[in-house]
Every structure is written in structure tokens, then in C-alpha cells.
Amino acid sequence: YDLDDDKVAAAKQLLARVKRAAPHHLEVLAEVEHMIEAYITLAQAPINRDERTEKKVPLELRKRKLCDLTRVPVITCHLPVNPMGQYPIGSYPHFRYFEDRIQDVGGINVPKL
Q1: How confident is the model over 66-81, as a mean pLDDT?
Q2: Which run of H or of E encompasses 16?
Q3: Average of per-residue pLDDT across 99-108
Q4: What's the Cα-to-Cα distance from 92 to each of 34, 75, 98, rounded to whole Å?
Q5: Is the dihedral of CA 66, 77, 29, 110 positive or negative?
Q6: What are the E-state strand segments in 7-106?
Q7: Maximal C-alpha separation, the chain
Q8: pTM assigned to the model
Q9: Residues 44-80, buried b or exposed e (16+ Cβ, 10 A)?
């Protein structure tokens, strides 16, 4: 796995700017940061490409801080646009937890299911 330090630095700077500009969104940003770290950990999880067997999810993804992220919407779900821009917690599907197992589904970027 090859980490692009420039992209990581740019993402951290962007998050810091948003935090300073919108302190009322700190809880949302904290949950999003947890989700970002989880996706990075998942991407780095070693998978044997020759085997299509399931593997345990890395321990750090099973921690309590990664369950019921009520402010992190599931981005693949349809969410009708609210003209007022109001999306109260519970009004949209949100991240609940990772399953206990992952599997390589094939592909050049080693996507995991």
C-alpha cells in the first residue's frame, strides 16, 4: 500500500479549515473523521488475492467508536432533497457498524466487501 502524503496533508488541512469555519459542526466532523480512518484501515487490511475466502475485519474497526455514527449518512442510499436543508438525525440511513468479516471481491484496487 502506497500512501500519498500530499493528499493526506491536504485532507487534514481541509478538515482543520472546516472545523475553524464551522464549530457548530464539530460532532459531525468527528464522526466523519472516524469513518475516514476506518476506510483507510480497511483499505490497508491485507488480503490474499489468490483466495476468495473471508477474513476477520481488523480489530480497530470493531471498536465501539465505530458503531451508530448517526451523523454519517450512507452515501449510496437515496436521500430526497429537503428544500430547507434540514436533515435531523434519524431522518436518513446512517452508518451502524462493520460486519465481522471482509472478502476480496476482485479488481485492481483490491475492493473489499
Answers
A1: 86
A2: helix 5-21
A3: 70
A4: 19, 10, 18
A5: positive
A6: 55-56, 69-73, 94-95, 101-102
A7: 50
A8: 0.70
A9: ebebeeeeeeebebeeebeeeebeebebbeeeeeeee
| Burial class of 9 by CB neighbour count within 10 A (0 to 12, 13 to 18, 19+) | exposed
Long-range CB contact pairs, 33-42, < 8 A, 24+: 34/65, 34/66, 34/69, 34/72, 35/66, 35/69, 35/72, 35/95, 36/11, 38/66, 38/98, 42/98, 42/102, 42/112
Across all residues in the chain, what is the average pLDDT?
A: 80
3-state secondary structure at position 73: strand
